[in-house]
Amino acid sequence: MSRGFRFCPQCSAPLASQDHDGVPRLACGAGCGFVHWNNPTPVVAAVVQHGDDLILARNVAWPGKFFALITGFLEASDPSPEEAVVREVEEELGLQGRAPSFIGHYRFERMNQIIIAYHVVADGEIRLGAELAEYIRVPPAQATYWPAATGLALRDWLRTQGHDPQEIPLPGRR
C-alpha cells in the first residue's frame, strides 16, 4: 500500500486503510468517497540497438556502475507507447529511433510500475541527455541481464536473437 498519501486530496481528512473488493486501500476516513487505487505507472523501455551493439546507460542518480535500458514515463500526450519509446531514445541518447518492436510487459513492483518494453534500432551520434551519466556498448552475444523488470525484457529479447544470456545479481543484492 502506498506510503506517500496521508490525507485525502479532496477534503483533507486523514486517509485510513479500508477493504475494497478484498484489497486494502487507502480511503477517506471522513467518507467523501475518495479511494487511492494505487494503480501502476506505465513506463516504456528500449533495448537500443546502435549498429551491431546494444546501448546500456547509467542514470546520474544511480550509485556504482549499474547500466540498464533506456526508460521513461508514458506521457498522457504520447500518441502511443511505440512513439513514446522512440521519444525517450531521442531525449536520453540523442539518437533517431526507428522500427520499435514489442518485446513484452513486465511488473516493476518496487516502483509500482508496468514496463512496456521494445527493441529499437537507432541511428546517429550518441549525445547523452541530462538524466544519464554514461553509457556502454555491448555486443548482444556478451550481454548479461538482471533479474527484474527491464533486465527480464533484455533477457527475453536476447533469447529471441539466439543468445543465452547469463544472469547477474542486482546491485545491493547477493
Can you describe this structure in just a few lines?
The chain is mainly beta and 174 residues long. It folds into 2 domains: 1-38, Ubiquitin Ligase Nedd4, Chain: W (Single Sheet); 41-160, Nucleoside Triphosphate Pyrophosphohydrolase, CATH 3.90.79. 14% of the residues lie in helices and 38% in strands.
Task: Tell me what the structure shows.
- By secondary structure, the protein is mainly beta.
- It has 2 domains: 1-38, Single Sheet (Ubiquitin Ligase Nedd4, Chain: W), CATH 2.20.70; 41-160, Nucleoside Triphosphate Pyrophosphohydrolase, CATH 3.90.79.10.
- Helices cover 14% and strands 38% of the residues.
- It has 2 helices and 9 strands.
- The chain has helices at residues 81-93, 149-160; strands at 15-20, 23-28, 35-36, 41-50, 53-59, 70-73, 96-108, 113-123, 132-138.
- The strands form 2 sheets. Strands 4, 5, 6, 7, 8 and 9 form a 6-stranded mixed sheet that branches.
- The longest helix is centred in the middle third of the chain and has 13 residues, at 81-93.
- It is elongated.
- The relative contact order is 0.18.
- The model has no long low-confidence stretch (mean pLDDT 93).
- Keywords: Hydrolase, Magnesium, Metal-binding.
- Belongs to the Nudix hydrolase family. NudC subfamily.
- Pfam families: NUDIX.
- GO terms for molecular function: metal ion binding; NADH pyrophosphatase activity.
- Residues 39-160 form the Nudix hydrolase domain.
Task: Spell out the key features of this protein.
single chain, 174 residues, mainly beta, Ubiquitin Ligase Nedd4, Chain: W, Nucleoside Triphosphate Pyrophosphohydrolase, 2 domains, six-stranded mixed beta sheet, three-stranded antiparallel beta sheet, elongated, metal-binding, NAD-cap_RNA_hydrolase_NudC, hydrolase
